[in-house]
Amino acid sequence: MGQGSRFGVELRRLRRQAGLSLSELAERVYYSKGFLSKVETGAASPSPALAALCEAELGATGLLTELLPEATTRRRTHSHLRIFGLPALSAHFVGRVSEQRATKAALQADGGVCVVSGMGGVGKTEFAVRCAHQLESLFADGCLFVDLHGRTPDRAPAEPSQVLDRLLRMLGVAGEEIPADIDDRAALYRSRLRGRSMLVVLDNAASAAQVRPLLPAEPKCRVLVTSRNRLPSLDSATHVALTPLSDEEAMRLFTAIADVDADEDAVRSIVRRCGHLPLAVRVAAARLRTHATWDLAEMSRRLADETDRLAQLDDGERSVTTTLDVSVRDLGAAESRMLGLLALHPGADLDVHAAAALARMASREADHLVERLHDASLLNQPAKGRYALHDLVRAFAGRTLLAALSAEQKSAALRRLLDAMLATAALADRLLIPGRFQPEWARHLKPPEPLRFTDRAQALAWFRVEWPNLVELCRAAQRTQEHEHCWHLAFVMRGFFFEEKLWDPWISVHRCARVAAAELGDQWALAGTTSNLGVALADRGDLVGAAECYREALALYQQMGDQDGEVTVRANHGWVEHYRGHHAAAVQNLSVALEHYERTGNARNAAITRRGIALARSALRQFPEATEAAERALAEADELGLDADAVRALNCLGWVRFEAGDHVQAADAYQRAADRAGSGAMSFEQARAYTGLGNVAATGGRSAEAVALWRRADESHCGLNPTMVAEARARSQLCTTASGPAGAAEGLSG
To answer: Where does the record place the HTH cro/C1-type domain (predicted)?
Structure first.
């Protein structure tokens, strides 16, 4: 058997052992399936590049290289025929399939230049080397590789003149023939590349200015650049950005390097604490592998402390801290200050307005700074107009850049952010549910000028993006003893949470707010927050918890002599009594509240209360009175221009008529509710309406129509709770499939 055949047999054995088809291996090493098939059968000769790529993919370092045909090996030793200056491939590499495809496509175009960018430690050099190995067979004259030291610790970036000297020597130019002037060197470099087909890899570039003199003029040459900066001024280049690995990819990398059995939960915990950053994952895996007494639990424990995490991600030669320190060393004072202040933001992402509030500057100026940080790969951009700090960058910035600010400066920055977000949320709350009570402090808050939206759709869109950040800000306010900001934020978020049925965050922030109000000794704040927590619990279906909150809030309002608060709590408790089956008590409490609201001119709460009375009287089989209450609630909502309340009133009217046996009128009310709810804007009420229409169809014997309508309801909002939503209760009685566990109440007073 010839040496080429031995190579092919071993390649086939390793491929099958790895569970890969020829097509899968071909996709990974960028050789055609047909060529690989010929190599395996001995009909085609393998190359050193193919051997190196296959060894890396199959975890078989050295096993294929030693089986290369002697003629191939000898040909590679003649450097005058072909230059091969690429570093060796790493044995461990995962993911990056789409990025490899984009890079390959860019480097197959005439004169193609590809810039691979990403934060420090994301694996740009390893990625570029792998791509170069995959593509080197396409370049008749070989590959050049130069480290430009743009971000190398304790070393200045290489001067283009010095790099040209090195490249010319690699191209066979004698030292005495290299001119002194940089322009002459660049001209000679371009001349030496004319007519040649080469791949030039410029690793670790500091700037576009460093790269430009090194670009060939020969269209058969291609250039692959890596940089922490995005180098946008290389506008003819293709730009490929590397991001941290996915959960699965980071876990594969860790287990391969650490050489441990995959304990999925433990490994996932470790790689998440590494922020999925390849450098951090490699360091953690290497440290685990070299400590015989450590196990996965010990490694995870060492990374658990955020204040010590960066220190743990240092194996003596590689350090995440050093890598990030190099990334920020060239930042200007304004950019450094901004990066430090952004570490104060407790949320997952932010916009320019939040950055401007933190830094106390105009949005336009803040935009310039965050864009420069983004270009330096110190900020990610997960969506248009949104910026995010990687967890390890946040930790580094907090430990270094933020530490340069005084406690007073940091507190002032957080207060500015809280002020801006609270003011914007208060405005959004007013637009989201017009006519709902807001205290004096909320009505007069003015958000930053660019954020002053004007309609409900804009307010809803803003809330949907920012609510996770508002939740984290509420918690941060409690931690930093900004207690007033804490309960204020909870107060202005309650309407959005009710509309979107986000029960967990609604309950969480109100529990924080209760602690804050108690710390302030503000009885009104404590009563209102406790009452609103009761509404959240009732809306989710925790009627016992809601009733307890209402008892506490009622006692506080009575102590203060606050009749408005007392009545609102009684009204809310009336809804809970209805859901618990105490319909007569519900009518009594709601009727007392209705009389108060009519006397004081609180038209919106009056309309809400009529809906509750309609549902309770319907349960008591008092259908004329229930119908009158529902119709008046609808008329009042329409008169006030409250579309959301009008849709709820229509669903209420539909249920009353359905229970009364007037299915034609019930279907009419439900259809009007479904149409007015619209797609996405009021998905919960739309689901109620379609559920009601399905109930009407099922009662009329039209089972196929009923199933279709119920399916449409589930598509709008899956899982209405039969305890809280009468239509869902009727559906569960009309079909054999029980509805899901989630649900919500129909009313919200206040």
So the answer is: 11-64
Tokens 């933001």 belong to residue: 345
Quote the CA–CA distance of 357 and 605 in Å, as a whole number.
36
Q: How far is CA 637 from CA 130, 605, 634, 642, 699, in A?
A: 65, 10, 5, 5, 30
The model's pLDDT over 665-705, given as tens digits with 9 standing for 90+, comes to 999 999 999 999 985 568 899 999 999 999 999 999 999 99
Residues with Cβ within 8 Å of 385's Cβ and at least 6 positions away in sequence, in order, are 351, 352
Extract the runs of DSSP E, i.e. beta strands, from 605-646.
Answer: none
The pair of structure tokens assigned to 2 is: 């010839």
**How far, in whole angstroms, is CA 306 from its chain's centroid?**
20
Give the sign of the dihedral formed by CA 303, CA 309, CA 311, CA 313.
Answer: positive
* Mean pLDDT computed over 717-737: 86
Select from 443, 455, 461 the least CA-distant residue to 643. 455
SS3 content of the chain, % helix, strand, coil (to 5): 65, 5, 30
Q: Which residue has the tokens 């009104």?
A: 524
The bridge status of strand 199-205 relative to strand 142-147 is: parallel
Q: How far apart are CA 69 and CA 253, in angstroms?
A: 32
- The pTM for the full model equals 0.81
Contact 556, 530 (CB under 8 A): yes
Question: Which region, left, alpha or beta, applies to residue 195 given φ > 0 means left and ψ of -120 to 50 means alpha?
Answer: left
Distance separating alpha carbons of residues 496 and 467, to the nearest angstrom? 9
Cβ neighbours of residue 136 under 8 Å, at least 6 residues apart? 49, 84, 86, 142, 143, 199
- Strand-pairing partners, residue 223, are 113, 200
pLDDT-derived band at 635 (thresholds 50, 70, 90) equals: very high
Beta strands at 113-117 and 83-84: parallel, antiparallel or unpaired? unpaired
The identity of residue 80, as a single letter, is H
For 509-519, the pLDDT digits (tens) are 999 999 999 99
From residue 684, how far is each of 537, 618, 651, 689, 741 by CA, in Å? 17, 22, 11, 9, 14
- Tens digit of each residue's pLDDT (9 = 90 or more) over 35-67: 889 899 988 888 777 887 788 778 777 788 888
Residues whose CB is less than 8 angstroms from the CB of residue 45 and which lie 6 or more positions away in sequence, other chains included: 4, 39, 69, 71, 72
What pLDDT is stored for residue 741 in this prediction? 35
| pLDDT score for 678 | 81
In eight-state DSSP terms, residue 181 is S
Tell me which residue has tokens 């001067």. 159
The amino acid at 650: L
What does the alpha-carbon distance between residue 152 and residue 135 come to, in Å, rounded to a whole number?
27
Q: What is d(CA 12, CA 5) in angstroms, rounded to the nearest whole number? A: 11
pLDDT of 739 above 60: no
Maximum alpha-carbon separation in the chain: 106
pLDDT of 237 above 90: yes
Nearest to 371 by CA among 346, 339, 396: 339
- For 155, which DSSP code? B
Record the tokens describing residue 457, joined without a space: 């759709």
Q: Angle, to 10 degrees, between the axis of helix 407-432 and the axis of helix 456-479?
A: 150
Run of H or E including 358: helix 352-359
Residue 446 phi, psi (nearest 5): -120, 115
- Identify which of 396, 384, 105 has the alpha carbon closest to the alpha carbon of residue 277: 396
| Cα separation, 570 vs 586, whole angstroms | 9
